[in-house]
Amino acid sequence: MIAYFVIVLILLGIYYVYFKRELDFWKNKNVVSSRAIPFFGNYTGYILLKKCIHEVIEDLCRAFPSEPYIGAFYGTEPTLIVKDPEYIKRILSKDFYYFNSREVADYSEKEAITKTLFFTHGDRWKVLRQNLTPLFSSAKMKKMFHLIEDCNNSLNALLEDVAKKTEFEVRSLMARYTIDCIGSCAFGVNTEAMTSENNPFCVIGERIFDASNSRGFKMVGRAIWPAVFYKLGLNLFPLELTEFFKNMITKVFEERQYRSSDRHDFVDLVLNLRQSKHLVGDSMKNLKGDGKKSVIEVDDDLLSAQCMLFFAAGFETSATTLGFLLYELAKNPEKQEQAMKEVDEYFKNNKKISYECVFETPYLDACINETLRLYPVLGVLTREVVEDYTLGGVSLERGVRIHIPVLNLHKNPHYFPNPEAFRPERFLGVEKDKIKPFTYFPFGEGPRICIGMRFAKMQMTAGLLTILKKCQIQLVENTARNITFEPRAMTLQPAHGINLKLVLRKK
Ligand code: HEM
Predict the structure, then answer these.
(1) Is 320 inside a domain boundary?
(2) Which of 101, 128, 149, 168 is least enclosed, having the fewest CB within 10 Å?
(3) Ligand 1 pocket check: which of 82, 171, 443, 454 to mutate, most ligand atoms within 8 Å of Cβ?
(4) Ligand 1 center to residue 378 CA distance, Å?
(5) SS3 285
(6) Distance of CA 125 from the midpoint of ligand 1 (Å)
(7) Distance of CA 424 to CAs 102, 343, 374, 460, 468, Å?
(8) Is the CB of 266 under 6 A from ligand 1?
(9) Residue numbers of the domain that contains 301
(10) Is the CB of 181 under 6 A from ligand 1?
(11) Is residue 426 in some structural domain?
(12) Which residues form the signal peptide (predicted)?
């Protein structure tokens, strides 16, 4: 009985300490905030996997429509939700040094995959970024384009089969195309994702982005309580995934006898990095005026984890975006017609697709941009304060989280009138010039902007040219007219498949 009483007292004590802290934290800084619930903070729906993170933040933004920022608790972690474009600019770009980490900076060495560019921070991030950036230059993309062209030939053949079906799930189809592109460019292997449906790359792709309860809780648990997460011996990604990529990349290295080939793919480029054994780059302190260099060791673990990251980021993001884009074109036949006109014009002037297609098809580019406005791959950008900083008079201590509500800004009628409408024209001519800086960032912004943006646009534009040259896209009876999103997914994903129909165009 006494033990029971003591336990209740302890629990009440913990509750009180958290409650008090959470009640006072933002109040003491003169920042508006909503009442936080102990343990869950203001993110209950997200932590319980009932709502996507952008939906939870949307509710908070709606409660304080004219505040430049809102104080919140991400579980037990103090978090500033920043809505004002000027402050966002400081965080993502101008004062990037203080916000160079995405999340849980002190734990990025725990897993092979979290040591890579997306997850790491500080000097390690800077050295990796400096050394990996040249892999994505225009010149490199151009040299690689012959691989994308091969994939488009396979896509062209696959479309014939798909058009025979009464309907098909669009994201899965697009994933088969982008898996083939990234497999070929990142690993130098022909994945055959478009010729055989259940091939290992498609299976592994599904495993990486597995939107199950267990993965969802792991994602949330690691992001909010990393110390407990790693004490429990958990990993964000199953170890067999990294093993799969390590075995594959080692096989490819061996086949090439550890020398670069004439494919001009990422493996060639990564093999060059491997030869140097160390990567050297500027230290983050340089941003504060120090002229120091920083060095990290290169080993096969790092390179294969890096390739796994490129595979994951490279196929999933573009597949989902292409899926949403085709869905919007099916819903908006007049926009589809406009896009087809441009495609027909392109093929009038070009016998086949070349790398330059990205610059020669402004309407397709506007369709991609508009799709990413409505469906940004990351509905919320995260940053973490790595050194104490004062933002507009609010002192932010090391470790405070920053959430930038991307989707909320993309749908703000003040920045994008009639925000629910699919209007690629927003991204053309004078309308495009009017977009306020730091209100639209589907690829992020500042030094941590998506490194693969050029690659993504290249594979998406080429894919669209192939599809729209050959087919018209139509809705079917059970295509959802409004999309709901999957709270357990790592990126913005539809909760249910989107079924469409392809009709071959008359020649
Ligand atoms: C439609 C396609 C894509 C979209 C919408 C997208 C979006 C994003 C976003 C929003 C970020 C975070 C940026 C920030 O925090 O400021 C990011 C980072 C990143 N993306 Fe992409 N991405 C796409 C395709 C790709 C591709 C094709 C690759 C690689 C082949 C890639 C590799 C990465 C990497 C490595 C990072 C981390 C960069 C860093 O932290 O320095 N992404 N991407």
Answers:
(1) yes
(2) 149
(3) 443
(4) 9
(5) helix
(6) 14
(7) 30, 15, 11, 16, 16
(8) no
(9) 116-377+411-504
(10) no
(11) yes
(12) none
Does the beta carbon of 317 sit less than 6 angstroms from any atom of ligand 1? yes
C-alpha 442 to ligand 1 mean position (Å): 9
CATH of the domain at 452: 1.10.630.10
Give tens-digit pLDDT for 107-134: 988 888 888 899 999 999 999 999 899 8
Q: Which long-range contacts (CB under 8 A, 24 or more apart) does 478-486 make?
A: 478/167, 479/327, 479/330, 481/331, 483/324, 483/327, 483/375, 485/52, 485/54, 485/55, 485/379, 486/52, 486/211
Output the six-digit token pair for 365: 């580019």
Q: Answer yes or no: is the C-beta of 372 below 6 A from any ligand 1 atom.
A: yes
Domains held by the chain: number = 1
Please tell me the distance between residue 449's alpha carbon and the centre of ligand 1 in angstroms: 7
- Position 5 scores a pLDDT of 75
Q: Which residue has the tokens 């999309």?
A: 483
* 451 Cβ inside 6 Å of ligand 1: yes
Any domain includes 5 = no
> Ligand 1: which residue has its CA nearest to atom 19?
450
Output the pTM of the full model. Answer: 0.94
Residue 210 burial class via C-beta count within 10 angstroms: exposed 0-12, middle 13-18, buried 19 and up: middle
The annotation status of 471 as a binding-site residue, yes or no, is no
d(CA 207, CA 220): 18
> Which H or E element spans position 394?
strand 394-396
Task: Provide CB contacts within 8 A for 139, sequence distance 6+.
Answer: none
447 Cα to the center of ligand 1, angstroms: 12
Residue partners of 342: CB distance under 8 A and separation at least 6: 361, 362, 363, 364
Model confidence over 181-201: pLDDT tens digits?
998 888 778 888 898 767 788
Tokens at residue 200, please? 């290992």
Q: Ligand 1 centroid to 96 CA: how many Å? A: 17
The sign one gets for the Cα dihedral 145, 149, 150, 151 is positive
Instruction: Among 267-276, 330-339, 457-466, name the one with the lowest average pLDDT.
Output: 267-276
